Amino acid sequence: MTIYGDAERPRVLVHGLDDSHEAAAVIERLAGRVKYLDAWDRTLRWASWDALVTIGSFDLDTADTDHLRVFQAGGIPVGNSNPVTFTHSEALDAVTIVGEEVQMGENLAKNLRELVKRELVPAVLGSSPPREGFLNHKLGVRFTPLLTDLDGRAIAAIYQPVRGLHECWYVPEVVPDLGVWLEAAFAEWSRDLPEVFPTTPDWVDNEQWMTAEEVAADESHRLLEQNAQETFARLEAEIQESAAERAALRQRVDAEERLLLTETGDGLVVQVAAALERLGFEVEDVDAAGRREKREDLRVRDGDWIALCEVKGHDKGATTADILKASRFTTLYVQTEQKLPDATWYVVNQFRGTNPSVRRVVLRGQDDDVNAFAEQNGLVVDTRQLFVLDQAVLRRSLEPQAAREQLKTSVGRFEFLPGIGRP
Exposure string (b/e) for 213-224, b if CB count within 10 Å is 16 or more? Predict the structure, then answer.
């Protein structure tokens, strides 16, 4: 049977733009025949058309569109329209996206990944939330997200509804260059249906028109890309696992070693004792010994050598009152032990709510009091210095014995000298 008026394919309906739109030139180049619609036309014979390009919503209220390919920019995603109620998206639920962040869909082909990254991500991030999105809740729908928020709500996707059309490429209207998206969609449709979409620029990529060598090379390239994607996915999983381990480690350190820089009271005393023990000292918690009279917090020993250690934490700066208290504990020690300790230490975590890097020197401007304390073998130790000293030993840049000697031989203000005691 002879058919007259059979136009060159593909035959494309266009809605939401006219021939003056910049995307129209791309459509005219890709299509065999183009018809621009001002509105939905009930007289259309849908079987005579291969594709629909629409900016904004479009009602497809006929079942005679199962073959149709659709490219849509913005609006309510087409497909699954009820012919009686004209309600949309039985399988795609419209949602409002309020988050700023976006992420690329999984397992996209290389050309789509590059297109999403280059054209879609900057356009979407350049628009402020709330944004339009949709979810695929029902089974039976082929649904490939191109870009989503962090909760899986699609901003752009390629999907096939339960009924109503063969496929839709949906992107938000904010994309700056519809032409590159149209070329990608028509190229994909050409690979699936070359007899209907034969005019795409990359028709030579269709296996039907490739040589055997090209097919083999194409398959090898595809396998390499697949391996690269799998490797990337594995490395990404390892990165996520490493990030979780780092977060758990930070939480543990915050609750232990870093309390030297943040805590006060008994919690600080415990961590000072733990740090000194890591340096090789023997540490006695005097309060835990059950003495009736208040004494120093810790007694620190290295063989026969002994230091009395008073530990304090302050939201503001260290105080000379703490030095006087430490000196009083020295007097009590002499009364009971009939000898002087080798040293008296005042260990203080001052300005504990601020960044340790910007805290000022302990007892700044009170050098006379510090010097008087030094004359009694007194040592003021900022917990910042103790933390750094402890970590130098743990990192093996300083021997424990050298660290102990620096503390034992210092008076006045303690200053850790990293260059001393290196192996």
Answer: eeeeeeeeeeee
Residues 27 and 167 in one domain: yes
**How does pLDDT run across 327-349, given as a tens digit for each residue?**
999 999 999 899 999 999 999 99
- Same structural domain for residues 214 and 119? no
Clarify whether residues 233 and 354 are in a common domain: no
User: Same domain, yes or no, for 39 and 143?
Assistant: yes
How far is residue 27's CA from residue 19's CA, in Å, rounded to a whole number? 9
Q: Which pLDDT does position 292 carry in this prediction?
A: 62
CA nearest neighbour of 140 among 160, 165, 170: 160
Kindly report the backbone phi and psi dihedral angles of residue 347, in degrees, each rounded to the nearest multiple of 5, phi listed first.
-100, 120
DSSP 268-302: HHHHHHHHHHHTT-EEEETGGGT-SS---SEEEEE
Q: What integer is the mean pLDDT of 358-370?
A: 93
pLDDT one-digit tens code per residue, 55-85:
998 877 665 788 899 999 998 888 754 433 3
How far, in Å, CA of 350 to CA of 52, rounded?
A: 70
Please check whether residue 357 lies inside any domain of the structure.
Answer: yes
Strand 11-15 relative to strand 51-55, pairing: parallel
| Same domain assignment for residues 112 and 20 | yes
Domain that holds residue 284: 259-413
Together in a domain, 51 and 164: yes
pLDDT tens column, 245-272? 999 999 999 999 999 999 999 999 999 9
- Considering its fold, how many domains does the chain have in total? 3
CB-hemisphere CA count at 13 Å for 183?
13
Per DSSP, what are the bridge partners of residue 55?
A: 73
Whether the predicted model's global pTM rises above the 0.85 cut: no
What would the two tokens of residue 301 be?
């020993």
Claim to verify: residue 95 and residue 231 sit in the same structural domain: no
Q: Which structure tokens are listed for 25?
A: 């030139």
CB within 8 Å of 19: residues ≥ 6 apart = 28, 36
Question: Is 302 a member of any domain?
Answer: yes
Q: What are the phi and psi torsion angles at 81 (to 5°)?
A: -80, 135
Neighbours of 206 (CB within 10 A): 16
Question: Of 227, 254, 281, which residue constitutes the final position of a domain?
Answer: 254
E-assigned strand segments in 166-294: 167-171, 282-285
In a shared domain, residues 189 and 247: no
| CATH (domain of 370) | 3.40.91.30
Cβ atoms of residues 17 and 55 within 8 Å: yes
Residue 420 in any domain: the answer is no
Task: Tell me if 1 is assigned to some domain.
Answer: no
